[in-house]
């Protein structure tokens, strides 16, 4: 039975029921064809798990009397401040409408256990406004039925990771990217807002949590530099600012070395390894490029005995890969290196030893960068400069010139006592960045 909260008495009765700290499942009714920064929810479903009652607050859906905005904010405040567990799906999107930071992202928890994303989808091909509320309620109940087996069984490690993923990528998303409209040709001009900003959407519901970033047919993670697709992204501060990109050097290798406590040189690892491959101190540019290819082929495809015997670090990788593979088959799971998220054999069925290793490398990449992203966001809180893009092994920051002095601090936060050396690039647009020393 669906109870619509339309009168003051309805709301008072509902608010009173919250005092019992019933566990809740929340879902905002949102037009997902629009970016969440540019829309408002039409309503909110609230399901009391302990009593199986479902309530609906209309913020604009025509089938229920919409409650005033002040009242809606008051009710939302009461819901979010209760000590009960508050489950939610599409948590990152919900952050645009309220402070959902203390809600449990059940969607992510289920995904980590099943590799399947349970979501609320209006599959009728018509707008939410035109879809009857009872039809939407049925869809809500169908979603609820799929989620019910997971209530109260959330994994703490996945929950902690989900909270941090949501926090970091929501804050990057909402900052937006400033666009030079005269050079922008990636999509329709209507994706640019009145402030000259466009917005991506990070999706970390992937097997390794390595996120994609796309919206309105723009794939921000695959902008073609040779076709100048990056050039349109500039500083929002115009002549008063610039873009700063920090890019990790040989990131995957250093993540593994950090995990096993292997001491690597702070200089270029591709040069260091190339000196082993070619048995010489000075490499040509061609030999350097080939060294990178050799290394990637080894860690993605397998390390031969002659390489193991010649390079101790490669021997450590090969030994770990085999031990990790044996544990995966014996125990049925392995844990990621930073957040201890579980990768089970039931979910990751199409595996071999080196593929599993690379899943862990990519997971470590994302997890380490979530920690780094939190540090940058904390540093830039209440500052003019903004963290505006994340791309696997790099961060892009829109810097105001009055805050250029923060660059060394950003580098210090991310290098972690030089365990993860960075390359630093600056420029007026994303496509024309020049490497500098900080």
Low-confidence stretches: none
Based on secondary structure, the structural category is alpha+beta
Average pLDDT metric: 95
Distance between the termini: 62 Å
CA radius of gyration: 25 Å
Strand content: 15-25%
Question: Which word captures the global form?
Answer: globular
Number of helices: 13
Largest sheet, strands/sense/barrel: 6 strands, mixed
Strands ordered across the widest β-sheet: 1-4-3-2-5-6
Q: What proportion of the residues is helical, as a percent range?
A: 25-40%
Number of separate strands: 19
Task: Quickly describe the structure.
The protein has 438 residues and is an alpha+beta fold. The chain has helices spanning 8-18, 69-81, 91-94, 106-114, 133-147, 156-175, 251-260, 269-278, 285-301, 305-310, 312-331, 353-380, 407-415; strands at 2-4, 24-29, 43-48, 53-58, 86-88, 104-105, 177-179, 197-198, 202-203, 212-215, 218-219, 233-234, 241-248, 333-335, 342-344, 386-390, 394-400, 422-427, 434-436.
Describe the model.
This protein has 438 residues and is of the alpha+beta class. Helices cover 39% and strands 17% of the residues. It contains 13 helices and 19 strands. The protein has helices spanning 8-18, 69-81, 91-94, 106-114, 133-147, 156-175, 251-260, 269-278, 285-301, 305-310, 312-331, 353-380, 407-415, and strands at residues 2-4, 24-29, 43-48, 53-58, 86-88, 104-105, 177-179, 197-198, 202-203, 212-215, 218-219, 233-234, 241-248, 333-335, 342-344, 386-390, 394-400, 422-427, 434-436. The strands form 5 sheets. It has a 6-stranded mixed sheet with strand order 1-4-3-2-5-6, sandwiched between helices. A 5-stranded antiparallel sheet has the order 16-17-13-18-19. It has a 3-stranded antiparallel sheet with strand order 8-7-12, with no helix packed on it. Helix 3 links the parallel strand 5 (86-88) and strand 6. The radius of gyration is 25 Å and the shape is globular. The mean pLDDT is 95.
